[in-house]
Design a protein that fits this description.
By secondary structure, this protein is mainly alpha-helical. The chain has 5 helices and no strands.
């Protein structure tokens, strides 16, 4: 798995980059959970879970996104709209 969420490399999935992006106590919790996870599927699931948190922590708009999520005002997009946009851009959905 490739991780990495530094502002210059937000799409990568290297554990070291995910930890760099996490703030404060979340970084310690990340290390504790990754070290406790069994190698393989459990560790991959743990890293995937933390990758989402790291992406949010490293997002320059994180405070606005977090506030919107907590107040229920965060804009959302339906799965059908995502599929429509992807097809409009020449892509196919994974099941197609």
């Amino acid at each position: 798995m490739t991780y990495g969420t530094s502002r210059n490399n937000r799409g990568s999935r290297a554990p070291s980059a995910a930890s760099e992006a996490l703030r404060g106590a979340r970084r310690a919790q990340f290390f504790a959970e990754v070290l406790a996870a069994e190698q393989g599927a459990e560790r991959d699931a743990t890293l995937t879970n933390w990758w989402g948190r790291a992406m949010l922590d490293s997002d320059p708009q994180r405070d606005r996104i977090h506030a919107g999520a907590e107040t229920g005002t965060l804009p959302t997009t339906s799965w059908n709209e995502i599929a429509r946009r992807r097809r409009a851009n020449g892509g196919a959905m994974p099941s197609e």
